[in-house]
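Weekly modeling sync, notes
Attendees: AB, CL, MP (scribe)

Item 1: holo prediction request
CL wants a bound-state model with zinc ion before deciding which constructs to order. AB pointed out that an apo prediction alone won't tell us much about the pocket. Agreed to run with the ligand included and paste results into these notes for async review.

Input as submitted:
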Amino acid sequence: MGVAYQLSCGHCTYNQNMYMGFGFSYCSLSSILEWYKDDVGRQRIRDFIQTDKEASFECFDGLYVCQSCHYLLNEVYLHIKSDSDDYTNRHTCLRCSALMPSKPIDQIEDVQLDCPDCGNEKLSVQSYMDWD
Ligand SMILES: [Zn+2]
Ligand SMILES: [Zn+2]
């Protein structure tokens, strides 16, 4: 089950909702295909479904932290693996176009996040609802 968080900065007006975790539609590759948007990723999912039904995968909404500008990107992480193939989706920063780390943060409450706008240390993190 996923949890929605509100991140806010005590020094500037930065305020952002982040959806973390996974829902029912993340439980199989064919259900992921129903909502997954990226065309390259969709094709890869289809390939895995057709060629290897035993492929294992990991899929959740996570928080990518840009290493260049500290922008916070709330996006889906998808990693599919079979004996012969391996796929990890990648994202780029919406602010500076840098390639985001290959794996996002999945436990937002365990980390200390800098404000992407003013650089102040430690955003406040508050969970406000469960989704799915
Ligand atoms: Zn960036
Ligand atoms: Zn700030």
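Recorded for review: The pocket of zinc ion (ligand 2) is lined by residues 9, 11-12, 14, 115, 117-118, 120 (CB under 6 Å).
Action items: CL to compare against the apo run; MP to circulate these notes.
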